[in-house]
Structure formats: C-alpha cells, structure tokens
Specification:
- This protein has one domain.
- It contains 1 helix and 6 strands.
- It is mainly beta and about 80 residues long.
- β2 and β3 form a beta hairpin.
C-alpha cells in the first residue's frame, strides 16, 4: 500500500484495525502534526508512470508547477 498526497482512507482503516485490539486505557493518545523540510527535486516513479517532486495537494486540488519544499507529517503516540 502506497501513501500518496491527499486524504488516505487506507491509513485511517489501518489505524482503526490496529486500535480496535487495544485495551480502553491504551486508546488514549496524542495526534501530532508537523511540517518537515524536504529537498527540492524531481524523480520518476516507473510503477505509476509519474514525475514526483512538485507541490501536490491531493486529488481535490491537484499538482502545482513549483517544487515541493515541505511535507506535512503526523504521528499518533499513546499516553499510557
């Protein structure tokens, strides 16, 4: 399963499946979001037949013509 720009239902389904086996106390968590800097550049994905490295805001908005220089990441971390 690849993770691509935009809203990923696959990622949420994976979280749901994993967390469903946790004890109630272990389900309490913090969801962290952060922006990271990435190296600007282009690369070619043979499998998808696409050039990567341009700003991509997902299927609803699409790709822009400038190089991507940052990415939004998230992490779920248990409190207990």
């Amino acid at each position: 399963m690849g993770v691509y720009p935009g809203f990923s239902h696959n990622v949420l389904d994976t979280f749901k499946a994993k967390v469903s086996s946790f004890a109630e106390a272990d389900r309490t968590c913090v969801l962290l979001f952060d922006e990271i800097a990435i190296k600007a550049g282009l690369s070619y994905d043979k499998v998808r037949d696409e050039v990567e490295g341009l700003e991509d805001l997902g299927s609803a908005i699409g790709t822009r013509g400038s190089f991507a220089t940052s990415a939004l990441i998230f992490m779920a971390r248990g409190i207990n």
